[in-house]
Structures are given as structure tokens and as C-alpha cells.
Write a structure and sequence with these properties.
The protein is mostly helical. The chain has 33 helices and four strands.
């Protein structure tokens, strides 16, 4: 067993040029792809590096390493890897797609368009490629080219809603509101429950100054969306134009709860709080804005006015002075600073500012004012890019008039997840959990806690269904731990905790085959050690999930999320058997019932799933994920009322995605 583990380490960690031929490239590539699929990007890069070092002529590892880098926001690295992949195999469409996306992030739209043109030579009806190319042309303001692309996309896929949304945006940019509205109507006909359609419709109505109608459309979009702060920002604008200041502030409150650093929401809420006399909290908002943008003179001037209102004259004068250093002829600033200085008894400073103001007034009387000063400006809003300090009191809108009118997402990442409504993930035993701002219930079991207290494992086990990917240091730590645990196993071959510890290391570096081998050894050493059955069930489930998706990839670049293979009962028998063993040995282990319920969902045995979720909730009435999955199960069975009750409870316990599902099942056309 020691030799087996050491050979593994040689294959994936300590390669030297003299032993490159020893690596099983297909196996290591498969492990890397597995890590990539489960979003362990840093780990996957290490595996792809080994394949590239062993067989630098292969195109696939460069392509997959490019995807990993793309997901880590290393766009230059992703572009270079995709180029290397194309040089080795120029006939794979997804290589051009990935490089196109990397180039888009680098704002090289021409290069991205060239990639998409090349991709279309090999796959002329690829919807994702046409989608991305049209968006690139919109970025370049090539409206004629974008229109041709969108018309071809609609010809290929006449029910593709996003094509109509993009074309409506194009028509709005070219001031053709009639055709834009026609496309929105068509998009609504195709997908009435798509929030982006309603948001885009609202954009058009805002631009036409139909504020009440825009608010109604945004109500619909919000009703169908999951926590999108941009929609609340836009609805606040619609309410502001209708002089509903309290309603606008309420929407800014919600938006800022979701995104505390949202500039537009923070600035505008500060303005509205000032208008209703809530000066101290308005100062708090402008403090945040100025922390984000220390040179934002309009925010500083607004804060100066607020300090003035609350009687903090020294801070007011400090802020007035900051603005006037940048805009020495800003008469309103001079007047306010003069008044503040006079209140403090500094007549000399006040006189100096008033003299400048008086001189400017005399010049105006003598006709020495600029043309710009003559222009009337009755707009209630200003663009965010507007730097005219005289517009300090205007509500800010993004330069495109709305935030997140709809997501112009570039399509085609191989690792994109299915966004359709689905069950919450399986629980695992691991050392790492994703951070969440939402306080959820603590997942606990006395036996797991006893393992932690006894310190028989290298780290502290947590029970979670929000596993965190490993960083580079953690990856190296677990590779090293595999060797350390191997030495321990040689010394203590019958100690179940040793083989279990190494199984966890293999699991965390995504080597599922070796992880299962060690778990098999664990249960052979101690048939009552139920965590081994639990983790073996989880790993087998993940293997099936990955294999099911991979079965569709005719080329290494094809999107594995296209299509779905119905699971076969025999594929899940071993998983269910392991979970049965857990429940037999630890009938109070909540998460075995929950995971078995998920397995029953995949087997379409919804009533058995309900029984398992019932038991999980009985054991832990605060388990939001069980309420969520039980709610979906009731809905699958047609029991919408019961399902919505469970989803509501899940939302109450902090699983906010439940509210979006509720909206989708309660909204009537």
C-alpha cells in the first residue's frame, strides 16, 4: 500500500524530466478535469502542468488549464494557454470560444471576433458563438454588424430569448424604440417568467419617461429574480422620478443590504436622506462613497453641506476647502464656506471668499459669463461620469441609464453550471467550508466531534454542503499528507482512522479512485466506522455525476452541460447501500438521511425522498437545505402548497434562493 501511494505522488507531484514518461497522462488529465468540474481550479492547474510537462504536444491540457485560469481571472494566462491549444489542434471550436472570452476580458474585442469567426467555420450554427460575437460588436458600437449577427442568431434559434433582448438594446442605442418594444414583446411571448425581459422593458420605459410603467416592470423582474441589487437601484430611480422619496430610499436600503459597496445606491441614498433631513445617516453614506472614491468632489461637497447642517463647521470648512482647491471658481462653494467661516468668527476668511463671489457677480452683470452658464439644466439626474461640480445635488445614474438592465453574459464556458432549479448539494466531511455572510445552523454530530477532540485526523472535520476549493498551499499540504499518512498506515495497518485520513487527502486532491480504495480498507479494518461509508457514498455519487456529464463530450471542448443522461437505478445501488449502512450504525446522523433523500430524487422516487427529508428535519428542525429539497419534492409531486411552505421555511432559515423558487411557482401570467 505504501508503494502504491508513493507511486501516485511521483506521478502527480515530484516529476523530473527523466521520469516524464512514467506518468499516466490520461489518468492525471482525467483527475485534473474532475478537479476542474468541481471548481478546484488551483488544484486542476497542478495536474494539467504535469501532463504538459510529460507530453507538451497534447492540446487538451493547455485548453483545460486555460479554463482554470479564466475562472481565476488570469485572462492573459488563459489566452496564452488557449493559443497553445489551438497551435496543437486548430479544429476544436471551444478553444476559440475560450480564447474569445479571455480576449473580451482583456477588452480585445477585435481579437475575440476573429476567434468567433474561426469557430463558426467549424460550427456555423453554434448559438453561444453568435451570441458572444454580437455582444462584442455592440461593445465596438458596430451596430450594423451586430444586427446582422443577431438576425442570423434568430434565424438559427428563433426561440432564443437573449437574441431579442440584445437586439432590443441595439435598437435603443440607435433610437429605434418601436422596434425595441417589438423585440421585448417577442421575448415576453417566448419567456414570460424571465426577469431580464422585464428589466429590459423597464429600461425602455425609463428612457421614454414612463416612470410608473417602468416601476411595474421592475416589480415583475424583482419578483422573479434572486437578490439582484441593480433592479432595486433602477426601481428607486423610477420612484424618485415620481417624487416617491421614501420608496426610493427603501429600495436603496435593500440594494445596499445585498451590495454594501454599490456606489450609485450609496450616493443617491445619501442625497435622499439629506432631502428628508436625516443628516447624520446621510453623512455615513457619503463617508463610504468618499472612502471608495477619495477624489469625488461632489460627494465631498455634499458631505460639507451636511456637516454644515449639523453644526460641525470645522469639518464642513475642511470639505469645502478640498472642493475649492480643485474648483476655485465654484461660487456656491465659496458662498457656503464664507458663511461657515463667519459663523466661526473668522471674518477675514469670510470676506476673502465673499470678495471673489462679488467680483464674479459684477463680471456677470457686465456680460462676462460663459455660454455654459447661460444654459438651463432642468434634469433631475446626472451620469456617473459627469464631473461638473455644479451638479452635486443630482441623483446619479450609470452611464447606461440603468444598472444590470439584463446580464449580457458571454456564453460558452465549459464548466458553466446548470442554472435550472435543482436540489441543494450533498453533505460531505471535509476540512474546508466556503465562507457565507448568512448565519446558518451549525452542522454537528457527537461522533464527528469526538474524532476532532481526539485529534486522530490532520485537521478539524466539518460537516458541510458548501465545500471550499483548495488554494495552492492547501494542495501541497495534502499531497505531503498523503506520504505522511502512508507511513502511518505501514506502522498501523489495522487503524481505520489512518486509512480514513489518507482517503480524505485523496478526496481533497480529487483522486477519487484512490480515495475509495482507502475507504474500502477503512471499513474492512472497522466495519462500524460509519464516516467511511458516508464519504464513500458521496465520492461514488460525485463520480457518477461527473461521468454522466462527461459522457456527452464528443470533443474535449464541448459543453458538457448540454443534455442530460437519466440516471440508472443500478448506478446508485452502491451509494444507497452505503447510506443505509450509515443510518444503521448512526441512526441520529441527520446528513445520511438528507443525502439519501437526494439520491432518491435522482432515482425519481420522490415519496422515498420525502420520508428521508422528513427524518432529517425531525433530527434537525433548523436544516434549511432539507426544507428546500423537501419543498421541491412536494412541487414535483404537484403539492405546491406544501412545497411553498417548506421553501418559505428554508428562506426563513437563511437559504434565500428559496424565495426565487416560490415566486416562480406563485406568479400567475
Amino acid at each position: 500500500m505504501r508503494r502504491h501511494a508513493l507511486l501516485f505522488i511521483v506521478c502527480v507531484v515530484g516529476l523530473t524530466p527523466s521520469i516524464h514518461a512514467q506518468i499516466n497522462t490520461e489518468r492525471v488529465l482525467a483527475i485534473g478535469r474532475n478537479a476542474l468540474y468541481f471548481e478546484d481550479y488551483v488544484l486542476s492547474i497542478q495536474y494539467f502542468n504535469q501532463v504538459i510537462n510529460a507530453k507538451p504536444s497534447m492540446a487538451e491540457p493547455y485548453f483545460f488549464r486555460g479554463i482554470a485560469k479564466l475562472n481565476l481571472d488570469d485572462y492573459h494566462g488563459a489566452e496564452a494557454d488557449c493559443t497553445s491549444s489551438i497551435e496543437r489542434n486548430p479544429y476544436v471550436v471551444s478553444s476559440y470560444q475560450m480564447r474569445g472570452i479571455a480576449r473580451i476580458h482583456l477588452e480585445n474585442y477585435k481579437g475575440a471576433i476573429d476567434d468567433y469567426k474561426q469557430a463558426l467555420k467549424y460550427d456555423p450554427e453554434n448559438i453561444n458563438v453568435w451570441h458572444n460575437m454580437a455582444l462584442c460588436r455592440l461593445q465596438q458600437e458596430d451596430y450594423d454588424g451586430a444586427l446582422k449577427d443577431l438576425e442570423e442568431l434568430i434565424r438559427i434559434s428563433p426561440r432564443y430569448t437573449n437574441a431579442y433582448l440584445m437586439r432590443s438594446e441595439l435598437f435603443m442605442k440607435t433610437k429605434d424604440t418601436v422596434r425595441a418594444e417589438n423585440d421585448i414583446a417577442k421575448a415576453l411571448e417566448l419567456d414570460y417568467y424571465e426577469p431580464n425581459v422585464w428589466a429590459t422593458s423597464a429600461m425602455i420605459k425609463l428612457q421614454k419617461k414612463q416612470y410608473k410603467e417602468a416601476e411595474e416592470d421592475l416589480n415583475q423582474s424583482i419578483h422573479l429574480s434572486v437578490r439582484n441589487p441593480g433592479l432595486y437601484i433602477n426601481r428607486a430611480l423610477a420612484k424618485y422620478y415620481q417624487n416617491n422619496l421614501r420608496g426610493a430610499m427603501a429600495d436603496y436600503d435593500v440594494a445596499l443590504d445585498m451590495d454594501k459597496n454599490n456606489f450609485v445606491g450609496r450616493y443617491n441614498r445619501g442625497l435622499l436622506r439629506a432631502q428628508v433631513g436625516d443628516y447624520n445617516r446621510a453623512i455615513d453614506d457619503f463617508d463610504v462613497v468618499i472612502e471608495q472614491e477619495p477624489d469625488n468632489m461632489m460627494a465631498i461637497f455634499n458631505r460639507a453641506l451636511l456637516y454644515d447642517h449639523v453644526g460641525d463647521l470645522r469639518n464642513a470648512i475642511r470639505d469645502y476647502t478640498t472642493v475649492l482647491e480643485q474648483y476655485p471658481n465654484f461660487l456656491a462653494g465659496l458662498q457656503y464656506r464664507a458663511r461657515a467661516n463667519r459663523k466661526l468668527g473668522d471674518a477675514k476668511a469670510a470676506d476673502a471668499d465673499e470678495f471673489v463671489v462679488l467680483k464674479a457677480q459684477i463680471d456677470e452683470h457686465n456680460g462676462k459669463k460663459s455660454k455654459a452658464d447661460d444654459e438651463e439644466d432642468n434634469e433631475k439626474t446626472r451620469k456617473r461620469s459627469d464631473r461638473n461640480v455644479k451638479h452635486f445635488g443630482k441623483v446619479v445614474v450609470d452611464d447606461n441609464d440603468m444598472q444590470a438592465q439584463y446580464k449580457n453574459e458571454y456564453r460558452g464556458k465549459v464548466q458553466d453550471r446548470n442554472v435550472h432549479i435543482t436540489t441543494q448539494p450533498m453533505f460531505a466531511l471535509t476540512y474546508y467550508e466556503k465562507h457565507s455572510d448568512v448565519v446558518r445552523s451549525l452542522h454537528f454530530h457527537k461522533f464527528i466531534e469526538s474524532l476532532n477532540s481526539a485529534k486522530v485526523l490532520p485537521g478539524r472535520l466539518v460537516i458541510t454542503n458548501a465545500e471550499a476549493p483548495l488554494d495552492e498551499e492547501q494542495v501541497q499540504r495534502h499531497f505531503s499528507s498523503i506520504d505522511e499518512q502512508t507511513a502511518q498506515i505501514v506502522e498501523h495497518p489495522n487503524d481505520a482512522s489512518k486509512s480514513f485520513a489518507r482517503a480524505l487527502d485523496f478526496y481533497l486532491v480529487q483522486d477519487f479512485t484512490n480515495a475509495i480504495n482507502d475507504l474500502n480498507q477503512t471499513v474492512q479494518n472497522d466495519p462500524t466506522f460509519f464516516p467511511a461509508y458516508f464519504m464513500r457514498a458521496l465520492i461514488r455519487y460525485k463520480q457518477l455525476e461527473y461521468a454522466k456529464i462527461e459522457g456527452h463530450a464528443e470533443q474535449y471542448g464541448k459543453n458538457p452541460m448540454e443534455g442530460n443522461v437519466p440516471p440508472k437505478a443500478k448506478d446508485y445501488e452502491l451509494i444507497r447501500h452505503d447510506l443505509d449502512q450509515v443510518i444503521e450504525q448512526a441512526p441520529d446522523f441527520t446528513y445520511a438521511y438528507y443525502n439519501r433523500g437526494n439520491v432518491m430524487i435522482f432515482l425519481r422516487d420522490y415519496r422515498a425522498a420525502l420520508l428521508d427529508y422528513d427524518k432529517a428535519i425531525q433530527l434537525d428542525p433548523m436544516l434549511a437545505d432539507a426544507y428546500y429539497n423537501r419543498g421541491l419534492t412536494h412541487i414535483y409531486l404537484g403539492n405546491n402548497r406544501q412545497g411553498i411552505q417548506d421553501l418559505s421555511k428554508a428562506g426563513e432559515l437563511g437559504l434565500y434562493a428559496a424565495y426565487n423558487v416560490i415566486k416562480r411557482y406563485t406568479m400567475q401570467k
